Amino acid sequence: MEQRRILVAVTGGIAAYKIPELIRILRRAGACVRCAMTPAAQEFVSPLVLQTLTGHPVRTDLFDASQEGEIDHISLADWAELVILAPATANTLAKMSCGLADDLVSAVLLATRAPVLVAPAMNVNMWEHPATRSNMETLRQRGIRAIGPEVGELACGWEGAGRMSQPEAIAAEAGLLLGSRDLAGEVVLVSAGGTREPIDRVRFLGNRSSGKMGFAVAAEAALRGADVVLVAGPTPLATPAGVRRVDVQTALEMRDALLAEFERATITVMAAAVADFRAARPSELKIKKEDLAADSGLTLELTRNPDILAELCARKGDRLVIGFAAESHDLMASAQRKIARKGCDLLVANNISSETSGFDTDDNAVVFVWPDGQVEELPTLPKRDVAAQLLDRVAKARGGDE
Ligand code: PMT
Asked: Which DSSP string do the residues of 32-87 spell out, in sequence order?
């Protein structure tokens, strides 16, 4: 952590009493630490304590001209290489999830491009409330890292999940986040989700891809310092922090969007489930069954969509192109044939025969397949961890740290 710039943002929970210890650990590890506090946080720990420990004035007020003169809130957001929000109250997590910026801490959280690590701490019922659950899910999808809360006896007298993680654990997680800037300087282009091929004005051909795998790759790549462009099929997923998103509907739109970004990209990851076929003549109007002969079916003529991955591989030069493959059987043999046919540098073969892996799941079971026939099988992991493993291989192939 030598000379790394960490902003510790403190909000109003009893666990704020542990923040001086967190600052001490970070400083001992060589980090340069600054603090920002909400008004409620100051009820639990004094700004003077944190100022003494960090050696810098503590920012508490968005509208105090003297504080803004010292370092304005946008400069503070830009200064940080990592923001640690600890303790993170339910209220501040909700504000983050909504993008509110009505105090100094939430304004900095909205403005920063740095990775954010949150250490929630609250009453167990507040933690388990559907609103907090949903806010945390939104934040995770945007690439925010969370540590804890731990289970145990809470200051309010309740037992359960809600204790802030120990300062040593928060500092260790911060070290991991700061350590992995191995994709800085890379431009990573990711496709995610399924495509929708119109049949008529209301109907389409689609598939079960949720976008979770591709969004995890995009979030992880951004966290590791890459400039990330995400071309996404229709999905309600939130855009990960620091990622530029281009929304598309059809395979042809996805192809256009990818080709427009491909020249600039040094690494391309095709996690999208692109429809292989589209309706040859989609109707401008809704097809009505009254217009068809009674009891007759409807025959749909399909035409092939371009193979975008093969097209990108054909023009890739020394850029890295990674494909995915969804396989329900003969995983290895199909994957080996696919990598040879498409010409990519690495193929991530998904096992979609299990309920807990592949389409619209939180976890994935994948095998990395290389063009020379080497394979590497991973255990079933959360998609975010699969993304991290994939990007470890990619960074190594690009000559960075593993
Ligand atoms: O989105 P999730 O719910 O998280 O699910 C993730 C996933 C299972 C969709 C993802 O991990 C995955 O496997 N994506 C690829 C699925 C797929 O379409 O596989 P495929 O074998 O049909 O295609 C192989 C590769 O060619 C893929 O990289 C695909 O993006 C690409 N392709 C396919 C068809 C086409 N016309 N053009 C393409 O570029």
From this structure: EEEEEE-TGGGGTS-HHHHHHHHTSPPB--SS-HHHHHHS-HHHHHHH-SEEEEEE
Q: What is the dihedral of CA 37, 42, 44, 50, to 10 degrees?
A: 60
> For 187-397, which CATH superfamily applies?
CoaB-like (3.40.50.10300)
Residue ranges, CATH 3.40.50.10300, the chain: 187-397
DSSP-derived 3-state class of residue 125: helix
98 is catalytic: no
CA angle (223, 59, 114) in 5-degree steps: 5
Write down the residue that tokens 């370092």 correspond to: 71
Nearest residue (CA) to ligand 1, atom 33:
274
Q: How far is CA 344 from CA 61, 325, 371, in A?
A: 52, 12, 8
- Short-list 141, 147, 151, CA closest to 173: 147
Torsion of CA 76, 105, 50, 122, to 10 degrees: -150
Residue 85 and residue 103 in contact, taking contact as beta carbons nearer than 8 Å: no
Does the structural domain 5-178 have CATH classification 3.30.70.360? no
Q: Are 7 and 83 in contact (CB under 8 A)?
A: yes
Question: Which residues line the pocket of ligand 1, CB cutoff 6 A?
Answer: 193, 209-213, 251, 270-274, 276, 305, 307-309, 323-326, 338, 350, 358-360
Q: What is the pLDDT of residue 240?
A: 80
Residues of CATH 3.40.50.1950 domain(s) within the chain? 5-178
Give the per-residue pLDDT at 402.
42
pLDDT of residue 166: 92
pLDDT in tens, 179-232: 777 898 999 999 999 999 999 999 999 999 999 999 999 988 988 889 999 999
pTM above 0.85, yes or no: no
Rounded-to-integer distance, Cα 241 and Cα 225, Å:
12
Dump strand ranges (E) for 74-206: 82-88, 116-120, 145-146, 150-153, 159-163, 187-192, 197-198, 204-205
Mutation to probe ligand 1, out of 197, 250, 270, 362 (largest number of atoms < 8 A from CB): 270
- State phi, psi for 130 to the nearest 5 degrees: -55, -30
What is the C-alpha radius of gyration for the chain, rounded to an integer number of angstroms?
24
